[in-house]
Amino acid sequence: MLRLGVQSVPVVLVTAAFTGAVMTLQTYQGFQRFGATSFAGTLVALSVMRELASVLAALMVTGRSGSAIAAEIGTMQVTEQGEALEAMATEPVQYLFVPRALAGVTMMPLLVLVAGALAILGGRVVAVNLLGANPDDYDQSTRRALEVKDLTSGLIKAAVFGFLFTRVACARGCQAWGAPPPTP
Questions:
Q1: Cα–Cα 20 to 30 A to 62, which of 2, 36, 135, 152?
Q2: Entry pTM
Q3: What does the pLDDT read at residue 183?
Q4: Which class for 165: exposed (0-12), middle (13-18), buried (19 or more C-beta within 10 A)?
Q5: Do residues 121 and 74 make contact, with C-beta atoms less than 8 angstroms apart?
Q6: Where are the domains of the chain?
Q7: Spatial contact of 40 and 97, defined as CB atoms under 8 Å apart
Q8: What percent of the chain has pLDDT over 90?
Q9: At what angle do helices 135-145 and 98-125 cross, to 10 degrees?
Q10: Which residues, in sequence order, are CB contacts of 72 under 8 Å at separation 6+?
């Protein structure tokens, strides 16, 4: 959980903050043409919490932690540590895969909650400070738009992504073969 979740926080937060800021910048300018700038907060909040936060967090964590999981298990595969676990009557899948999958399922929704909040905040900062939006209107439109189902759908997707990327990383690690030649 530490490596997969806590140590991934900085990259996920930076990505989320800039995504929210850029989304607000683009939508606000587009909505200005139609006099609908009050909907910028709504659009950013809904799109971030329903879809973008879970997808972006999964991409960032997969790139950072998924590759590390695959490399770690691949190294264990090449050095025959899986066979050593079996020799000690320990099931390698339960010992190696299950903790990583549980960490992915547990930490990804937490990362998505934080990423969504920071993306909305990044969007608010751009709208209020850069584009001159009314902060009360922006906050109210954001609060009015978000419902529990928007949050839960994003969190469920995050948990599924967490399971899938840990599963794929573990499977790819198990496909490693060949040891480096011995050094004289």
A1: 152
A2: 0.82
A3: 62
A4: buried
A5: no
A6: 6-174
A7: no
A8: 36
A9: 140
A10: 173
